[in-house]
Amino acid sequence: MIAVDTNVLVRFITNDDAAQAKRARLLIEAGPVFVAKTVLLELEWVLRGAYDLDRPTILKALRGLLGLSALTAEDESNVARAVDWYEAGLDFADALHLASSAQQRAFATFDHGMRKRASRVVGGFEFVSP
């Protein structure tokens, strides 16, 4: 299995450099490919910040990647949960933090907006102030 960096996935999704996009596609299609959660986190950030893609486009890209049979994501069930929560309105980073912390007693944050949004989207979480 080969692990990929964010830039490989960016080329695969955006096709902004035809030669690199082709190489990325061939690598991913040949599989198996491993994608770390941190790569997915950075991917969403790059697509949103550098490429100015909107949430529906980013969601389509994330779901498309995660649906590839040649691709294995780290902590797949929690990544899938985070993508669902992102679709429901949470920031992707916050959604991934919460999904990855699901087995913990509570989640502490100073971010009151995140707590409010997450309380509407995520069930069963106790939020505490540090």
Give me some keywords for this one.
130 residues, mainly alpha, Rossmann fold, 2 domains, 3-stranded parallel sheet, two-stranded parallel sheet, 7 helices, 5 strands, elongated
Walkthrough of the structure:
- With 130 residues, this protein is mainly alpha-helical.
- Helices cover 60% and strands 9% of the residues.
- Strand 4 (107-108), helix 7 (112-121) and strand 5 (127-128) form a beta-alpha-beta unit.
| CATH uppermost class of the largest domain | Alpha Beta
Any idea how many domains?
A: 2
- Distance from first to last alpha carbon: 40 Å
Give the proportion of residues in helices: 55-70%
On the 0 to 100 scale, the average pLDDT is 94
CATH homolog superfamily of the largest domain? 5'-nuclease
**Unreliably modeled segments:** none
Overall shape: elongated
CATH architecture of the largest domain: 3-Layer(aba) Sandwich
